[in-house]
Amino acid sequence: MVRVGVNGYGTIGKRVADAILKQDDMELVGVVKTRPDYSALQAVRRGIRIYAPDAESARKLEAGGVPVAGTIHDLLGQVDVIIDATPGGVGAKYKPLYEEAGVKAIFQGGEEADVAEASFSSLCNYEQAVGKRSLRVVSCNTTGLLRLICTLNKAIGVKSVRATLVRRAADPRETKRGPVNSINISPVKLPSHHGEDVKTVLPGLDIVTAAVVVPTTLMHVHLVNLRLARPASLDEVLEALQSTRRIMLVDSGRTGIKSTAELIEAARDAGRPRNDIPELAVFKDSITINGDELILFQAVHQESIVIPENIDAVRAIMNMASREESIRKTDESLGLGTPLW
Ligand SMILES: NC(=O)c1ccc[n+]([C@@H]2O[C@H](COP(=O)([O-])OP(=O)(O)OC[C@H]3O[C@@H](n4cnc5c(N)ncnc54)[C@H](OP(=O)(O)O)[C@@H]3O)[C@@H](O)[C@H]2O)c1
Fold this sequence. Notes:
Layout: E1 2-7, H1 11-21, E2 26-32, H2 38-45, E3 50-52, H3 55-63, E4 70-71, H4 72-76, E5 81-84, H5 90-101, E6 104-107, E7 118-120, H6 122-129, E8 134-137, H7 140-155, E9 158-168, E10 184-185, H8 193-199, E11 206-214, E12 220-228, H9 234-241, E13 247-250, H10 252-255, H11 260-269, E14 280-283, E15 288-290, E16 293-300, H12 307-317, H13 323-334
Parallel strand pairs: 1-2, 1-5, 2-3, 3-4, 5-6, 6-8, 7-8, 9-11, 13-14
Antiparallel strand pairs: 9-12, 10-11, 12-16, 14-16, 15-16
Helix pairs in contact: 1-12, 6-12, 7-8, 7-9, 12-13
The structure holds NADP nicotinamide-adenine-dinucleotide phosphate.
């Protein structure tokens, strides 16, 4: 049983913690929370132990009715691996603390790539991550792009990728972020960093990305234009995409789903926890092939897509299972591939 701690209990941290609780080879020792709010109170009610980043936060948590099991130092003394889910850039500040404690660390995509020994994507480079001291699970958009690229790479081969990302402005619970009435070209100077982030996992890939941010909180949407290594048929592409539970094909003709709003509603109706869609959602009817050129739309549920990769990252970094075994255990325990309609 590998003992895991989670530092940061926001959008990603709370989902990672829940996912660890579902693994039969991992124990959630506790989570680090800074403030006493509804999330902290719910965690307490569910028996999750709360640790504080420092004495001042511990005092505030206790004053707010959240029992504190200790500080982050106490947590680090009891775990084999820490999953850092603090806001982007904060993880790097904790890195020396994790190293001092002799604890392996998994960071998130909001950190610079050099925070860890390797950037991680289960379908692309699981084997290279085995036994490392630190890993960085790439961002939600990068995880979505890499799942598609590595799945097609394995079956057919991918020569180049051009992608336009339509990004959500904020997560549903975030009240302070925008835009509210705008389409922000972000960044104006091309390419966007997302393609560069893909290259932290696939260094040789010819990929260029552009991104805009729109006033929605539900999901990101990508228009992906891929040059395959050779001409392929639609059946070959569909077979490749259906070979992994990490990708979901959305049949718009049959389901009527043509938007992120309807996708999230389908997840709600299906009783998915938190409406989560950790699978990459590829719109089947958008798949267009001209010889070796492939075009498609895909949607990324930013709040949950990186959760399976975080669980695989624990098994890789702790050398607990082969890639296939880890992916199977993660997918089964988290219910990936369970029908939404
Ligand atoms: N949200 C996404 O769409 C998404 C997708 C993929 C990857 N990521 C990446 O995942 C990471 C976490 O993002 P997130 O969206 O989960 O952030 P978030 O919702 O803002 O949560 C961050 C958590 O960290 C806590 N925190 C803040 N400062 C801290 C500190 N100094 N020490 C310990 N904990 C601290 C916050 O505590 P309080 O709750 O007490 O304030 C909060 O629980 C980032 O690197 C981000 O880029 C995010």
